């Protein structure tokens, strides 16, 4: 398998070079040169595999022979040995029509652990095998930062700098990042929004000279390894229902702000997983919902919500979807992204909008709707949703038809967002790993929101 850029100006490269490049050197995003097609027989043969066995099968399709099978198996086993549930990502039945895919059993209680435990180990492996310098630069709206730091803290040959929007993540999310005191970790609290942090990251990676001089590597979902790792749990969740005879008309409802998690589901669909409907759940920062409904991709006014990890206006993985929407036409993608940079807006024609609406249904959940879902499901089913998962469940209630079964992705443990949950008078007990954070000192540097502000910090750190 080789990887190419959505903008067509990078020669095909292998898997290891792709994860090291992160953002393509032409400013695009890397995608597989072709998407593996899975037969019904292959899917059936995978149906009763463990999570680790399934991950190894899927990764092998995209890695080929660059990493020996025994080494890849060890990376997978080491990555998911850190999870608290033996199923890694268990599926919980809520009612006849709704199941929840719990993605929060990793070390930082967030779905990002599924990909970032693997990517952290992969970076360490590549560093050791190639004698490479790994300087990771990432931005977070809350969960990526803690998961990325946990994946590489203390590891030889790797340093990591994470940007987060100052004062715009939950307290637990902030503590999970900033109480880490390892010498290879730098936390920068940026005066701005997550979109500002993400813009800085993409612009620094697009500065190819700076990127190469300081050996910058990507941890955000611009890195294709993140997407591939997240694809696994769509297959695994589907198989859990198939093993119980419940796999007809399965929807996936995905809370998303950056389009990475739902793009992983779209990739699974393209590979041959028989998904009935991909439900795209957003919050009041609903640029993606408006695109699905109207065919216009245009940032609106930023709104702080109870689901802060989705408080995103510009979705970094959206370009990957445009690439497939336009028939893998890199020239068209380059034109559209140039138009977006110049005008802040993309509008697609009616035939493309029809294709989008065949791929996705979308719903933007208002703040009070999010809290209603938390309180309603807690009262009816004694199941506590975090506010992001609540958006996915609320969107399911709006968009799933009678007789359909939906798997809603639960992206974080509710303890990470107690501020929102307490608004509905619901008390919860923190897991001991989270409770312990409140007694630890914090380590972070508050900085301005310009590229130069961040560059100054990176030069000193790296």
UniProtKB/TrEMBL annotation:
Q: Threonine synthase N-terminal domain: which residues?
A: 2-80
Q: Where is the signal peptide?
A: none
* Purpose of the protein: Catalyzes the gamma-elimination of phosphate from L-phosphohomoserine and the beta-addition of water to produce L-threonine.
The record, for CDD domains, names:
Thr-synth_2
Key word Amino-acid biosynthesis present in the record? yes
Q: Which NCBIfam families match?
A: thrC
InterPro entries the record matches: Ser/Thr_deHydtase_PyrdxlP-BS, Thr_synth_N, Thr_synth_N_sf, Thr_synthase-like, Threonine_Synthase, TrpB-like_PALP, TrpB-like_PALP_sf
Q: Which reaction does it catalyse?
A: O-phospho-L-homoserine + H2O = L-threonine + phosphate
Give the record's keywords alphabetically.
Amino-acid biosynthesis, Lyase, Pyridoxal phosphate, Threonine biosynthesis
Question: Boundaries of each Tryptophan synthase beta chain-like PALP domain copy?
Answer: 98-405
Instruction: Tell me the residues on which N6-(pyridoxal phosphate)lysine occurs.
Output: 112
Any one GO MF term held by the record is:
pyridoxal phosphate binding
Cofactor needs: pyridoxal 5'-phosphate
Q: Which family does it belong to?
A: Belongs to the threonine synthase family.
Instruction: Give the protein name, as stated in the record.
Output: Threonine synthase
Pathway it acts in? Amino-acid biosynthesis; L-threonine biosynthesis; L-threonine from L-aspartate: step 5/5
Q: Does the keyword Lyase apply?
A: yes
Record's Pfam families?
PALP, Thr_synth_N
PROSITE patterns xref list: DEHYDRATASE_SER_THR
EC annotation from Swiss-Prot or TrEMBL: 4.2.3.1
């Amino acid at each position: 398998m080789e990887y190419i850029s959505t903008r067509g100006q990078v020669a095909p490269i292998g898997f290891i070079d792709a994860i090291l490049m992160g953002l393509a050197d032409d400013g695009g995003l890397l995608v597989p040169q072709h998407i593996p097609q899975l037969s019904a027989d292959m899917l059936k043969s995978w149906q009763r595999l463990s999570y680790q066995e399934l991950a190894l099968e899927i990764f092998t399709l995209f890695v080929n022979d660059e990493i020996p099978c025994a080494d890849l198996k060890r990376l997978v086993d080491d990555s998911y040995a850190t999870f608290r549930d033996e199923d890694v990502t268990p599926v919980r039945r809520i009612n006849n029509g709704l199941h929840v895919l719990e993605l929060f059993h990793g070390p930082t209680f967030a779905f990002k652990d599924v990909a970032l435990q693997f990517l952290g180990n992969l970076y360490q492996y590549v560093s050791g095998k190639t004698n490479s310098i790994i300087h990771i630069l990432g931005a977070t709206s809350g969960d990526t930062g803690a998961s990325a730091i946990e994946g590489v803290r203390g590891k030889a040959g790797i340093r990591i700098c994470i940007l987060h929007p100052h004062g715009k993540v939950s307290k637990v999310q902030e503590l999970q990042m900033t109480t880490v005191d390892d010498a290879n970790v730098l936390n920068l609290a940026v005066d701005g929004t997550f979109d500002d942090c993400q813009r800085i990251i993409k612009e620094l990676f697009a500065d190819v000279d700076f990127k190469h001089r300081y050996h910058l590597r990507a941890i955000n979902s611009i890195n294709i390894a993140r997407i591939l790792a997240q694809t696994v749990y769509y297959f695994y969740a589907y198989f859990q229902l198939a093993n119980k005879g419940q796999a007809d008309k399965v929807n996936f409802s995905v809370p998303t702000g950056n389009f990475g998690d739902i793009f992983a589901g779209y990739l699974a669909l393209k590979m041959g997983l028989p998904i009935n409907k991909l439900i795209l759940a957003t919050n009041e920062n609903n640029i993606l919902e408006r695109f699905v409904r109207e065919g216009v991709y245009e940032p609106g006014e930023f709104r702080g919500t109870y689901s802060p990890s989705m408080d995103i206006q510009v979705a970094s993985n959206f370009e990957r979807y445009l690439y497939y929407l336009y028939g893998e036409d890199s020239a068209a993608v380059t034109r559209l992204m140039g138009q977006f940079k110049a005008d802040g807006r993309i509008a697609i024609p009616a035939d493309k909008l029809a294709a989008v609406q065949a791929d996705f249904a979308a719903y933007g959940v208002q703040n009070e709707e999010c809290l209603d879902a938390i309180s309603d499901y807690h009262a009816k089913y004694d199941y506590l949703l975090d506010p992001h998962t609540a958006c996915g469940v609320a969107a399911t209630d709006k968009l799933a038809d009678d007789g359909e079964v939906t798997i809603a992705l639960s992206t974080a443990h509710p303890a990470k967002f107690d501020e929102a949950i307490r608004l509905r008078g619901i008390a919860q007990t923190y897991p001991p790993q989270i409770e312990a954070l409140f007694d630890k000192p914090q380590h972070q540097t508050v900085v301005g929101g310009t590229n130069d502000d961040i560059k100054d910090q990176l030069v000193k750190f790296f």
